[in-house]
Amino acid sequence: MINGWHGWVGTFTGVAVITVAVLPLAALAVWVRARRRSVTGATPAWRTSLAEVGIVYGTVPWVWVIMLPGGQAGEVPGRVSLVPLRDLHAILADGATGQIVGNLLVFAALGFLAPLRFVALTSVLRILALAAGCSVLLESAQYVLRLDRVSSVDDVLLNTAGAGLAALASRRWWRTTAGASSDRPRSTPAPGSATSLTEPEPCDESLGGEGDGVGAVHVVGRPVRPKRPSPGALRHDGNHRQG
Questions:
Q1: Side-chain half-sphere exposure of 48, counting CA atoms within 13 A
Q2: At 216, phi and psi to the nearest 5?
Q3: Which whole number is the average pLDDT over 217-237?
């Protein structure tokens, strides 16, 4: 039985109940986003919308549980375990395999759905790096906020491994995601917006005729010869020079 506000938001049971209760809202969010994408012609509308909502819905509850404070939060200093596999061995010795499964599922939704939404994340190594970075941030926050939890390197390893395994499980659909991104229409230049540059033809510098003394003028690739001066103008010019 959940009692009070703390019972709803401060316990694992309360977080689980809230997660189940908001499932219809998550489905509605997928439908709304897919409809909007279908109207605008974006593809694939349903898979992209499902991936976006699924990443949030499948990750936030686990992060919420990780950040729940312990009984002595704020009273005891943060604790750190930096020896790999030591805490994992202790968990297995105690038979608490549920904790291992929980750590594997923290970023499983992110690892499974992120490559289907973001082409840049269609790589197992990138998913591992992303999950490891997010896990380190969470463990560091536990230590800084003094949540009465142990910031363990084994938790980082399990969170990262869970994301990597989930990414491998969805790898068969990665090629379809990359293909859908490459099928987006590309913009083409409007008619007349681009100008083509052509190499100018050599100008014909030969004389237009015997005694005219005027060279041919080359305009837009076509030789244009000016009119010959009239004989009277030549005689006048000659007389002027003689004078």
A1: 19
A2: -75, 140
A3: 51
Non-local (6+) Cβ contacts of 91 within 8 A are: 97, 99, 100
- Percent of the chain that is helix, strand, coil (3-state, to 5): 60, 5, 35
Q: What is the mean pLDDT of the chain?
A: 81
For Cα atoms 30, 33, 37, give the angle at the middle one, nearest 5 degrees.
130
124-168 residue pLDDT tens: 999 999 999 999 999 999 999 999 999 999 999 999 999 999 999
Which residues are CB-neighbours of 123 under 8 A, at least 6 positions away? 115
How far apart CA 122 and CA 174 sit, in angstroms, is 6
d(CA 92, CA 170): 29
* Helix H or strand E encompassing 160: helix 153-169
Assign 222 to helix, strand or coil.
Answer: strand
* 214 has a pLDDT exceeding 80: no
Per-residue b/e over 70-105, b at no fewer than 16 CB within 10 Å? Answer: eeeeeeeebeeeeeeeebbeebeeeeeeeebebbbb
